[in-house]
Structure formats: C-alpha cells, structure tokens
Amino acid sequence: MGPPTKLSFFDEELKIIKEIYNHAWIKNWGFVPLTEAEIDDMARNLKPIIVPDLILFAYWGEKPVGISVSLPDYNEVLKHLNGKIGFLGGLKFLYFSKKIKTIRWMLLGIKQAFQKKGVEGLLYSETFKRGIEKGYQHAECSWILQDNRLIQNAIEAAGEKRY
User: Fold this and answer.
1) What pLDDT is stored for residue 14 in this prediction?
2) Closest CA to 100 of 69, 138, 70, 46
3) What is the dotted CATH code of the domain comprising 7-157?
4) Residue 143 backbone class (left: φ over 0; alpha: ψ -120 to 50; beta: rest)
5) What are the two backbone dihedrals, phi and then psi, of residue 150, each rounded to the nearest 5 degrees?
6) Which of 20, 40, 87, 125 lies in disulfide reach of 109, CB 3.0 to 4.6 Å?
7) pLDDT of residue 30
C-alpha cells in the first residue's frame, strides 16, 4: 500500500488511476474505456472535494496494481441547500461540509493479473480504517455491478447489507 495521496502529486496519480481504471474493467459487459479528456474533466471537477487520505493505491513492488477512490458524501450537504447556492447557500455548504459522516466509495480497480489475490481486501480495510480515522461513521459502496459477486460478497462478509 502506498502512502496517502497528496494533491501535489495529482497529475502523476491521475495517470495511475486512468491506467488501472481502463485495465481493471475491460472484461465487464458493456464497458467502454474512458478517454483521456473524460477522465481529466472528471478529475478537475472532483479535485476541490478530494480528501487525499481516501484515495489509495496498491503496489506490487514499484508497480501500481490497484486503486480505491472514496469521497465525502456531499449529498448530506446538498439536502440542506434546498436547490439554492447563492451567498447563504455557500455558507451553508461550508458549514455542513464539516459535518459529513458518510463516504462514498466511488471506484475500486485492480489490474486483472492481481484480482482475487487479496489486493481487494487490503484496499477495503485500509479505506474504511482511514475513513474512521477521519471521523466518518458510514460508507456507501456505490456503482457496484449487479453481477460483481466478488465485491458484493466481500461487503456482505464485512457485515454490511446490499440495497
């Protein structure tokens, strides 16, 4: 497991995420690799809300083989804004952002050759450990494919429920 991400290494780490993302999901039904422009745009939009300790990289020696990307669940903030951003909404956003208690686990990707070798478990446990250390009390594992029994079973084995 590499050290926590630092935004000063954002561009280098984004290259790793791009490589692993497009490699890890290649065998999933309907998968279409993201283009450089799509990933760059998504990263640029998400950068202001990234919590560096919740972006993890797994390495085999010097070679990156897995990623875990989680973000604070800003839905907890948005429900307080009533669809209004303005000045008051901005103040509410800042206030309620500090009270977020849930992380959303957005991405988990392991290169094909390293899948089912324990890398997933390492990333699960380290993600949740770091989330707890940061004060988060819940995690939502979103965007899990219906036929991805490996991740579903691991989440259920950790005592969580599917909904």
Assistant:
1) 87
2) 138
3) 3.40.630.30
4) left
5) -60, -50
6) 20
7) 82
State residue 7's pLDDT score.
55
Cβ contact 124:54 at 8 Å: no
Count of CB atoms situated within 10 Å of the CB of 126: 17
pLDDT of residue 105: 87
d(CA 136, CA 104): 10
Rg of the chain over Cα atoms, rounded to whole angstroms, equals 16
Rounded-to-integer distance, Cα 4 and Cα 56, Å: 6
DSSP E strands, 15-152: 55-60, 63-72, 102-110, 138-141
More confident position, 6 or 50: 50
Q: What's the whole-model pTM score?
A: 0.81
